[in-house]
Amino acid sequence: MMRAYKFLLRPTVRQAQALSEMLRDHCSLYNGALQERRDAWRHPSKTTVKYGMQSAQLKDIRAFDPERQGRWSFSSQQATLRRLDKAFAAFFRRVTSGHTPGYPRFRGASWFDTVAFPKDGDGCRWNSTPHDPVTRVRLQGVGHVKVNQHRPVLGKVKTVSVKREGRRWFVVLAAEQEQPQPLPATGSVVGIDLGIANFLADSGGDFVPNPRHGRRASEKLQAAQRALSRFPRRKAQDRTANHQRAVDKVAQLHGKVRRQRLDHAHKTALRLVRAHDVIAHEDLKIRNMSKAPAPKPDPDQPGAFLPNGAGAKAGLNTSIHDAGWGVFLTILHAKAESAGRQLIAVDPRNTSRTCPECGHTARESRPTQEKFHCVACGHAAHADTVAATNVLRAGLVRRHANPA
Fold first, then answer.
1. Is the pLDDT assigned to residue 180 strictly greater than 60?
2. pLDDT per residue over 89-132, tens digit each?
3. What number of other Cβ atoms are within 10 A of residue 229's Cβ?
4. Strand partners of residue 6
5. What is d(CA 200, CA 221) in angstroms, rounded to the nearest whole number?
6. Beta-strand runs (E) in 49-177
7. Which of 230, 310, 348, 371 has CB atoms 3.0–4.6 Å from 282's, for a disulfide?
8. Cβ atoms of 332 and 343 closer than 8 Å
């Protein structure tokens, strides 16, 4: 199984400058390859450019521009071209499936933040000085960079990536390791219901409050963004010191919210995995749930539109993104796999409208956000607990129908 490790880098001033130049040059390679594909398609012959053709040109590109392209790892440049190829593959896949396609875009200097090395030892070397008490990673064109390794890396390192977040640099490792020993069985099963009022409710009647990290930081974020909006938009190298400080402040606040969400998701998922052998959850389509409502043209006034509840839906979408359900479920899946627990996704339809006592389904049984009162048998409970109970039952039915 593959596991990822992320460590903070401690580059010197010259190394940080070299890392920035590496990102800049890989971004230039990405944009140049994208421009070549656009130009080839616009040509009357409608030529299609593939990854293999562009990868074959790398040798000539490196020889033509040795200062900007020739000093970096050949394999990392191939990985950048594969990244563009995957973007086009995803674009054509969306076109074929009938979804709204997003054509690959050019990347600005602040958007291109990762360089990947497909193989440890090819342009990079993890733990390049094994006899040094300080862990270092060697990067071609940069040198041996100090790593703040806060935990051991288990397994064999397969790929190495360098990532920039704000003014900090990180190294991300993908290590292949054996399946770990599962946790001792507890004999407990649970169903969970994700929500907005409460982040999580389980079938046992317990609740995990929604921390709302984004809402708590909204005032500071709005103030920082207002301060940033007073400066004209400029490239990073043309910003004044005050402008750069305003940019860093916004990035710092967003980074803090992101880390808080991750910390909350990791701790909540770990508690569930340690306490239960089987965890059933709703198979949520978060992208569909957070879509903006379609506009409603006014038939009586051409060019005018009727109210469609976009304002209220925008607030709900903000709350959904702030809760971070997708991140939590991804982390829960990874931890359950490592611990040998079984995770079951079930259809979320009518889970909060079906009575767990008599099985009657009615919209009127949920008069408010929190209350559930069955119109058939009179059973009353918290609506989220009812939903979690129904999720657990549906999960157990799927488990017995498809035994692991």
1. yes
2. 999 999 998 888 889 999 988 889 999 999 999 999 999 888 88
3. 10
4. 172
5. 26
6. 114-117, 124-126, 136-139, 143-148, 156-165, 168-176
7. 348
8. yes
Length of the chain: 404
**E strands of 153-260, at which residues?**
156-165, 168-176, 189-194, 198-202, 207-209
Percent of the chain with pLDDT over 90: 67
The pLDDT value given to residue 42? 87
**Residue written as token pair 């979690």:** 388
Contact 161, 171 (CB under 8 A): yes
What is the CB-side half-sphere exposure of residue 345 using CA atoms within 13 A? 8
Tokens 């790929």, located at residue: 159
pLDDT in tens, 336-382: 998 999 999 999 998 988 999 988 999 999 888 889 999 999 899 99
| 302 phi, psi to nearest 5 deg | -60, 135
Q: What is the DSSP letter of 292?
A: P
DSSP for residue 183: P
- Is the CB of residue 318 less than 8 Å from the CB of residue 310? no
Here the tokens at position 38 are: 């656009």
pLDDT tens-digit readout, 135-144: 999 999 999 9
